[in-house]
Amino acid sequence: MDFCIMDYQNILSRRVQDIQPSGIRKFFDLLENLDGAISLGVGEPDFVTPWHIRDAGIYSLEKGFTKYTSNAGMVALRREISAYLERRFDLRYDYKSQLIVTVGGSEAIDMAMRALLDPGDEVIIPVPSFVCYPPLAEMTGARAVLVETRVEDGFKLTPELLEKHLTDKTKLIVLPYPCNPTGGIMEKEDYDALARVLRDTDVMLLSDEIYAELTYGQKHYSPANHPGLHDRTILVNGFSKSHAMTGWRMGYVAGPAPVIGQMLKLHQFGIMSAPTTSQYAAIEAMKNGDVDIERMRDEYDGRRRYLVEGLRRAGLPCEEPKGAFYVFPDIRGTGLSSDEFCERFLMERKVAVISGTAFGPGGEGFVRCCYAVSMQSLSEALNRLDRFLADIHYERRDP
Amino acid sequence: MIDAVKLLQLLESDCTLKNDQLAAMLGVTEAQVEEAIQKLREEHIILGKQAVIDWDRTQREAVTALIEVKVTPQRGEGFDRIAERIYQYDEVESVYLMSGAYDLTVIISGRSLKEVAHFVGEKLAVIEDVTGTATHFILRKYKEKHIIFEKRPEQEKEWIFV
Question: Which residues pair with A170 in a beta bridge?
């Protein structure tokens, strides 16, 4: 057709149009056309879902279990998740009133925002962090208040930072720990401090704990574990990272019954129920998957140590990441911006890492390297990094 | 202190890992890894390092057979001496003492069916105290040492930002 009578720009929601698409797409297009490129860019386990879990999904299909489940998810699965949260994290949630099985953690985050926020509310979001929080917050008409965390603080949300940005409009604080991309975590003492700041407020917490099983050296501590924060915490978790189940889209949300009750309405009308096959697989993951979690975490831990040491030896300082599967080295010493560093490293040495700027303000000067890749790839990437840094050093020596 | 079990697990899963990689993964120095490996070799805990090969994809003809062997154990030596007499043959890949209906599993490889038949008939079955054999030819290997032989299809790569 030569002309179109529809003026889509006018028709489409202002809020949706105002969301900026991620610039990272261009970068991936470059990557796609490069032969022999090594990617430390994608944030997803390199493991295939363990067979016993896949098999449970297949078995459910063979038996013809293809109908909707109850809106909140199968009772058997919610019972298992509840038992899992108690077993692994010492958290108690009533599977009947405090738990919904969602389509990945992302749906849970979206619903939590929509269940809590009204136009004009403020949401505190520590950055650098995963990219979904600000747009989802803004879709509700709320304002995303981005709070830059610092490498010196281990990228934690400190009480000083919180106090500085807390207003009487603050409705919700996002807690993205263990953190993608920084690898930062929050511990009991950190939450003690936040609890003191929040004591006389009604501010809620949205704790995205998708990497909770991937902590190294210490057990994950949730704000829901904290007596002073438990009642204001909405906990989001899922199977993607812990059980290498990204494509199954299985997540869940747990929290105070009145909040979960409202979220269930959104879930019921927007989603109906999470995929049935995935729910059957998830039951098996909860029942018999703890050993898989430990096996994969051990594997990641070895790679993490290797990558951290390799980056440091190459001359890029980095905080030891205590969680997730990313290292976030400081590249300021190279004299390049993060975007330049990533583009040149890809084009000149065919290694993809992600610019810290993709994760919000505060990411400049850093790049994200994912170590959920084979040791061979890590080793080769480090070799190429040495050559890349030598080139840059050479250029700078003689301007 | 180096975690020897962890070190062994890493080497068992991939013996091509270099000492510097092992050191970083275990949080120790390269010298410590080197020393530990040396010690494990001396203690006869690390016995060798081998590649897993799918010979069926090569030109080389190879036949593998699993032989159930029944024997009469000997006073004072049990099965060990007979096992030793069997495992010293070059064509024998593995020998295991079994519980159940027979005593030893012997895995042998040869260039042809005839060669395997010859080994069983002329060398194995005639050993004193071997009271019976049952030979099973291996038709296809699917998995060995946790490694799957079939080339697995890979999911189409989609770069998504997570």
Answer: A122
Q: What is the pLDDT of residues A93-130, one digit of tens each?
A: 999 999 999 999 999 999 999 999 999 999 999 999 99
| Strand boundaries in chain A, DSSP class E | 38-39, 99-103, 122-127, 143-148, 170-175, 204-208, 233-238, 250-254, 326-327, 351-352, 354-355, 367-370
Q: Does B19 touch chain A (CB under 8 A)?
A: no
Asked if B24 reaches chain A (Cβ–Cβ under 8 Å), the answer is yes
Mutation for A interface: B9, B142, B161, most A CBs within 10 A: B161
Q: Which of A337, A360, A367 is nearest to A129 (CA)?
A: A360
**Measured CA distances, A271 to A100, A257, A266 (Å):** 12, 20, 8
* Packed helices B30-42 and B19-26: angle between N→C axes, nearest 10 degrees: 100
Alpha-carbon torsion angle B15, B19, B24, B30, nearest 10: 150
Residues of chain B neighbouring A306 (CB-CB closer than 8 A): 21, 24-25
DSSP conformation class of A252: E
Contact A360, A129 (CB under 8 A): yes
Tens of pLDDT, residue by residue over A193-241, are: 999 999 999 999 999 999 999 999 999 999 999 999 999 999 999 999 9
**B21 in A contact zone (CB under 8 Å):** yes
Helices A290-314 and A375-397, axial angle in degrees (round to 10): 20
Residues B34, B23: Cα–Cα separation, whole Å = 9
Beta-sheet pairing, A99-103 with A250-254: antiparallel
Query: Is residue B17 less than 8 Å (CB to CB) from chain A?
Result: yes
pTM for the whole structure: 0.92
Burial class (CB in 10 A: 0-12, 13-18, 19+), A88: middle
Q: What span, in angstroms and rounded, lies between the C-alpha atoms of A328 and A369?
A: 6
